[in-house]
Amino acid sequence: MSLDLKTLLGDVIKRKASDLHISVGVAPAMRIDGELHYIEELGVLTGHDVEQALQTIMTPEQMHTYRTTNELDFSFSYKGVDVEARFRGNAYFESRNMAAAFRLIPLNIRSIDDLSLPPILKEISKKRRGLFLVTGPTGHGKSTTLAAILNEINKTRYEHIITIEDPIEYVYRSMHCLVHQREIGADTVSFSEGLRRALRQDPDVLLIGELRDLDTIGSALTASETGHLVFGTLHTQDAAQSIDRVVDVFPPHQQTQIRIQLSTVLVGICSQQLIPKTGGGRLCSTEILLANPAVRNCIREGKTNQIKTLIQTGFSSGMRTMEQSLAGFVKSGELTLDIALTYAYDPKDLQRVLQEQQGGQR
Known about the structure:
Layout: H1 5-14, E1 19-23, E2 29-32, E3 35-38, H2 47-55, H3 60-69, E4 71-79, E5 84-94, E6 97-105, H4 120-124, E7 130-135, H5 142-156, E8 160-165, E9 178-183, H6 191-198, E10 205-208, H7 214-225, E11 229-234, H8 239-248, H9 252-265, E12 266-276, E13 282-290, H10 293-301, H11 307-313, H12 322-332, H13 337-343, H14 347-361
Parallel strand pairs: 7-11, 7-12, 8-9, 8-10, 10-11
Antiparallel strand pairs: 1-2, 1-6, 2-3, 4-5, 5-6, 12-13
Helix pairs in contact: 6-7, 8-9, 9-10, 12-13, 12-14
């Protein structure tokens, strides 16, 4: 019995899974609320099963590229009976066999409020220039958070938004804003080239799918400096790591100048992780850094070890550490302390925050 991938993708939507994996020698697996679940009733997949399944969703050109390079990132729309969505796919080889991972991208872009994200992100959407980063591990909702912010801009401003993605994930419908989405490979050759060209396309807001190299980061800093609002992602854990990553990608002789440049253009950083919630579903726990004068001074002087203290003391202005965010979930009963401790960047600090909160209630 051959694998019916399209029916399986429909099941991903219905079961509210985030990912689907198909590979040779095991049954297909879905990630639901952060945990993998094998679809045992479909049996162990053969090489023929996986190849035939991929041919039903990939174009001949895509299949040729995949076979030639052994890797392929792509995205596609899915429409089934009573369900519709987009998927981001990554096809690869493992142990000389075909395999693929598919990430569900809902058609409806959820708002900042719907996602229970910090309200300060609405203030970020009002900024006219600068660089805002969303960071965190792969699969922890960075694209969803950026989509919510961009959609807020799309609904409230009359401007030109350009996205540069690999591949295109959420599809935006032009509302008040004019939105153009460019895909690496299909519409432009690279992030850095797409960004360089975008500056000649009368943009107001730029979304860069990933700040992955020196050229792209350098172009993002330049675009932020020249009066554009730029959004990007990094696979870094927290605000201090994100600042160091941006600076360290440059040669040592340029790093002092880059710190000065970054301290001038940075708007803020949202670091996040998705955590399984008691009773099902997932919570988005966030660390928020806002670039106030003290933060800018720390960046300029290379004192990123002081960033966390500045976040802690900036709680009233909308900043918060990951531990302060987790403590809020523990206090509300949405998260147990044991689970919160496993996701805390500094477990001792989480316990300190909780003790302070309890002391304040007495």
